[in-house]
Amino acid sequence: MNLTVTEIKAFVPAKDFELSLRFYRDIGFTLASSGDGVAYFHHGHAAFLLQDYYHPGLAENLMMHLLVENVDAWWRQIEALNPAEKYGVRLEPPALQPWGMRDFILTAPCGVLWRIGQNVPINPSA
Q1: Separation CA 111–CA 3 (nearest Å)
Q2: How many C-beta atoms lie closer than 10 Å to residue 37's C-beta?
Q3: Going from the N-terminus, what domains does the chain have, and what CATH number goes with each?
Q4: 10 Å Cβ neighbour count for 60?
Q5: How do residues 32-87 score in pLDDT, each as one tens digit?
Q6: Is the overall model pTM greater than 0.90, yes or no?
Q7: pLDDT score of 50
Q8: Helices marked H in 44-122 — which ranges?
Q9: Any long-range contacts for 111-114 (C-beta under 8 Å, 24+ apart)?
Q10: Nearest Cα residue to 50 out of 85, 7, 16, 26
């Protein structure tokens, strides 16, 4: 019996589908396919499906976590895009989290919150 899982993806809502397509390409995801209101985005092995569907309760309560090797490189790339001005989104600088991660916050144009971060050693004596 083969129960191998090959991938899991979230369906991420979009209030303005075309704007969201541009936003995700700008921040570094590759658009692999799009049709019938669903776009497949990936960056390496990380992937999600952008859907042309919006419900405020879903969008404003959905959090995505992108684990990267170099959070500072991602921060510099995204900060240089000036997404707050270009897309009207929230961007907060990297911070050390008590759960052993250094991450930053970026909201998508529809309100989905992304935490982009890297693992860091936890100091057990702190």
Answers
A1: 35
A2: 11
A3: 11-119 (3.10.180.10)
A4: 13
A5: 999 999 999 999 999 999 999 999 999 999 999 999 999 999 999 999 999 999 99
A6: yes
A7: 98
A8: 56-59, 71-80, 83-87
A9: 111/15, 111/56, 111/59, 111/60, 112/12, 112/13, 112/59, 112/62, 112/63, 112/64, 113/62, 113/63, 113/64, 114/63, 114/64, 114/65, 114/66
A10: 16
